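Record 1 of the preview.
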Amino acid sequence: MPDNLPPAFVAYPRLPGHQLLSLQGVDAAAFAHAQFSSDVTALPLLHWQWSAWLSAKGRTLAVFQLLRLADDHVLLVLADGDTDAIASQLQRFVFRRKVKLQVHADLAVAGAFTAPEAATGAAIAQAGSHDWELDLGSDALPRTLRIGPVEAFEASDEAGDAAFALAWRQADLRFGLPRLEASQREVWTPQQLGLDRLNGYSVKKGCYPGQEIVARTHFLGKAKRAVQLLHTAAPAQAGDGVQQDGVALGTLASVAGDLALAVLPLETGDSELQVGDAPAQRMPLLDGLAR
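->
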């Protein structure tokens, strides 16, 4: 991001599309631990981690931030939402566990391209009973995420919202954080999406949906593809193919303007890539977002 940021980029506009899902009750952490890819029970209070919900076949349904706010409260921040559907599907696995799922329409998520005031790394700064600050960047690209009551954040004009949302999404991709549209859910394994770069899954904890496939791929070294950041010379969309020398090579998993995360073979030649008929240039991924 440039140094001379527009005022809206440092004033915490809402992040459209970001939704919140609470898991509350004495079994909240145990339930999340059994369903999601990260090691929830090892996460200290007022800390967060990247996590994912996988299908039984080890394909990624959703990638999100998992916040452990209290012994009986886990909060999911879903940038690519549809929390109602996810909550409905998760409810089928509650059985007799003492956990309540709640989609939050009363809270909003906002961001700014500035360093946090108090949060650092995976540590969450809490300013009130429903007001949290998270560090979502690095020294190379500082960002702060805030969660609070809807009325605490003013929505900007439509054009400003769109520009900010695109810049935020592009920053996600620069860090290697996949943003999955509906067409790309249940398509990729967490290894293919590079969630290991974010510490987004565990191969040591107990069972969770898809765990056997994730562990087998990890320990047998069968991951043959991973995400690479591309700059596309022409408009593209998730699901578009990537070619090299006229041969199909991989697929775009996430797109934000002229940036894309492509799932490509770990070993590729040095010749130019194409998306459609237009060239696509490889770019380095930023480090610093692992939690």
